[in-house]
Design brief:
Layout: E1 4-11, H1 16-29, E2 33-39, E3 48-56, E4 69-74, H2 77-83, E5 87-96, H3 103-106, H4 116-120, E6 126-130, H5 132-139, H6 145-157, H7 161-171, H8 177-188
Parallel strand pairs: 1-4, 4-5, 5-6
Antiparallel strand pairs: 1-3, 2-3
Helix pairs in contact: 5-6, 5-8, 6-8
């Protein structure tokens, strides 16, 4: 099996690290060699956060270079555009429609770019966009938008849905299992 490369990108506090933990656990349980590398940046100040997830028969490095990602899961529109150069031609970009103003926009020194997702849809990629935040709220809390996006990604990962359900059930805190499973199901059915 060739190595598969997944980038999970977002803004600090959105749950990118939990999503990567769930992926790493799932691929490990399937017997793959897995490398997960977390780059926090200024995550505590709303800065960009990226996690590399690589799995395959033998993975030698945790880093994904430009043009190598099979899938990018983006928790925010501007992050989708920022990390797009890492997606291979024909790759899959799963993006939340959520917008979070970066510091230059908050300070009035820049404007949030217009029509990001429509511009990305013109690229040589497969774009799946969904309102993960609204679906998370429907599940019970905005904090589970990460699990909504994971649910949306499952069809592109080629791994049985029930395995993901088991991984979520065994990983998230017991009191949040039902909400997370509902969020996963909403994301899974959003495509």
């Amino acid at each position: 099996m060739t190595t598969k490369n997944i980038l999970i990108v977002g803004v600090g506090g959105q749950g990118t690290l939990l999503a990567s933990k769930l992926m790493g656990k799932c691929f490990t349980e399937l017997g793959y060699d897995v490398k997960v590398s977390e780059v926090h940046g200024m995550s505590q100040r709303g800065g960009s956060v990226v996690t590399y997830v690589r799995y395959g028969e033998k993975v030698y490095s945790p880093v994904i270079e430009k043009g190598e990602a099979d899938i990018i899961i983006s928790f925010e529109q501007l992050e989708s555009a920022r990390w797009l150069p890492y997606l291979k031609k024909g790759g899959v970009l799963i993006s939340s429609t959520q917008k979070i103003d970066p510091m230059p926009v908050i300070m009035g020194k820049a404007a949030y770019p217009e029509d990001i997702l429509s511009k990305l849809s013109e690229k040589d990629i497969r774009l799946v966009s969904l309102d993960a935040l609204s679906l998370a709220i429907k599940a019970g809390t905005p904090k589970c938008a990460n699990i909504v996006l994971l649910g949306a990604a499952v069809q592109f990962l080629g791994i049985d849905k029930e395995m993901w359900v088991d991984i979520i059930r065994s990983t998230v805190p017991p009191k949040t299992i039902d909400i997370n499973l509902k969020a996963f199901e909403l994301g899974y059915n959003a495509n």
